[in-house]
Amino acid sequence: MNYKNVLLAACFTVAGYAQAQKQAPVIVKASQLVSEVQPTMWGVFFEDINLGADGGIYAELIKNRSFEFSKPMMGWQVTQDFFDEGALQVINRLDKNTANPRFLRITKKAADSKLAITNEGFRGMGIKKGLRYDFSFMYRQTAAGIGLSLELLNNEGKTIGTATVSATAVGDGWQKAAVSFQSTDSASKGRLRVNITGSGSMDVDMISMFPSDTWKGRPGGLRADMVQKLADMKPGFIRFPGGCIVEGFDLSQRYQWKNTIGPIEERQLIINRWNFEFPHRSTPDYFQTFGLGFFEYFQLCDDIGATALPILNCGMACQFNTAELVPLDQLDPYIQDALDLIEFANGDVNTVWGKKRAEMGHAAPFHLKMMGVGNENWGPQYLERLQLFTKAIKAKYPDFKIIASSGTDPEGKRFDFLNTELRKMNADVIDEHYYRSPSWFLSNAGRYDNYPRDGAKIFGGEYAGHSDKVVDGKKQNNWQAALAEAAFMTGLERNAAVVHMASYAPLFAHSEGWQWTPDLIWVNNLQSYGTPSYYVQQLYSLNKGTHVVPALLNGEAIKGQDSLYASAVVDKNAKEIIIKLVNASVRPVLKDIVIEAAKLDKNAELTVLGSEELWTVNTFSSPEAVSPKTSQITVSAGNKLSFTAAPYSFSVIKLKMK
Fold it and tell me: Where are the beta strands (DSSP E) in 241-342?
């Protein structure tokens, strides 16, 4: 380790260097059950940021499939061998179809002329050799004459798949045509060329292409490798759909869940606020098609065994942007949306919204138990709107839990005001957000030690260590940030009596389409990998336990002594004791760990996540540079482990109880 790293490490650690020698032992009191750990303790937060939905987990490969972007032909390139400005016309039928007003009218005069439109996808299309691709589109024509010939193109424009679509129906109504075909090669930045054959006139809309290897093989479904990354975490909940997109730049751009269910072609596209939020990362082709809508969010939760946590707009747009408000006497439609959502999720098939859910293919209820009202909203204007939501929801569903916002920061006048007032209101759960430096997370490992045990519970709804690398000033998903998060999470776990949920944010980022860093999982068109922070989250979630037990050093909770941070849980179902221990020091720390009041098997499991270099990151070429390594260790007489915590390491020790 060079001199620079030693200096950085000195800044990083809170309690200074640990000596590689035995000092006072760590005592784990296995029979002293402090509090239950909620099944929802560790979850994930999803927002359509960084091309997280369109261009990400929603597997649609065609960008601007219904010509509804601000520039209707964005993403499409037109090729023709003659000059005919009337060959392609975008028609707007707003008076007849407000959800999907535009379509493309194709007029081809000569059968032997060339006319084609090529879609570029979302930063290209990820195409896999030998995989089936399912193409479809909607059309309308008064007479047959035009056909479509498809070509999948690789990075160099070479054809790697072909198909011909039959579209022969005529009449005033819209029809759907589809064809499936295979790719003969792979491409990271493929495209789809649609050649217009024959002659005549045809209206087309909803031009779509999906890979066949979606999650669970669902047509028009989700990208399987990204969902698998979530399933591998076994999250207790999924918070959706955001985040700032819930609020919108103004109320016209807010997220409205009712516009995201039903037939895909009837879901009304809106601009994504991350399209323009950061001028330095402007993304003019970023819109929300809502192919991933509320039904799909609930279905995803169902698939991976996570509790659904939807967040709804409370009648307030983003206060950093327009701070637009709905007057209190006009708030009823917003409140009704919340009540209707509960019915959509839980109502039987005889209710209005339960019937809509059943018609989408899920007759059984989703068993929704909670929702958030507002995201990062603040001020008395938020509180008075929250009170109206709470009164209406609790009157109809007394046991339903409501998550309340504590604003944007974990301290300061804004936080203090909201925290005080929300507790006076007997809020169920208070959502706290913290995007802070690694040193903040280390110094706040005891944040919840003195929080009141009765009253409102805590949801760490959005957090991430923002680590700046000195040489380039970029926030990175490096090991320094992840290690600090692991240390902070020992404090969340130790205080599970207060903290009932926590989730890192944001979740996904496309390597060529991101607006915000750091993020938990990075993807390109063909690959995905978990960051060091991902593996920290996964290790906590997979080793959740059922009850907190004390882990003490010199009779005190371990939150920086000897640069160590620790927590312990018992899993009564698996009959295990699970110890989580972070060494935030540049040097190894040797400790005896003594387990009191338990009969243990001799063999135990040790999983270590770490790197000697704080700036280590995972990449597409080295996705497991920082990843868990598991081995076996032995418990000696007296239920004692002589354990050496490696420098800059997060260790999980799992002991079997007899």
Answer: 270-271, 287-288, 307-312
